[in-house]
Amino acid sequence: MNRFDQSDERRQDELIRVIENSVEHLSLPELEALYYDMISKGYIQM
User: Fold this and answer.
1) Is the torsion defined by CA of 7, 8, 11, 17 positive or negative?
2) What is the pLDDT of residues 1-46, one digit of tens each?
3) pLDDT in the model for residue 4
4) Which residue from 5, 8, 19, 28 could staple onto 1, CB 3.0 to 4.6 Å apart?
5) Is 34 exposed, middle or buried (0-12, 13-18, 19+ CB in 10 A)?
6) CB 38, CB 44: distance < 8 Å
7) Residue 41, SS3?
8) Count of H-run helices and E-run strands, the chain
């Protein structure tokens, strides 16, 4: 792996941590809205 790959992986890990932390603080209606938005955009497959 070159340093760009490692940097990209670090950035990805950082973004995942920020998103996980934010999602943990959403209310149920906010989570449902996010869920349906992600389904409609194809980010979540059922």
Assistant:
1) negative
2) 566 677 999 999 999 999 999 999 999 999 999 999 999 999 998 7
3) 62
4) 5
5) middle
6) yes
7) coil
8) 2, 0
Share in percent of the chain as helix, strand, coil (round to 5): 75, 0, 25
Tokens of 15: 């973004």
Per-residue tokens: 11: 């950035």
And the tokens for 42?
């194809």
Residue linked to tokens 């809205």: 33
Tokens 């943990």 correspond to 24
Structure tokens at 4: 């760009």
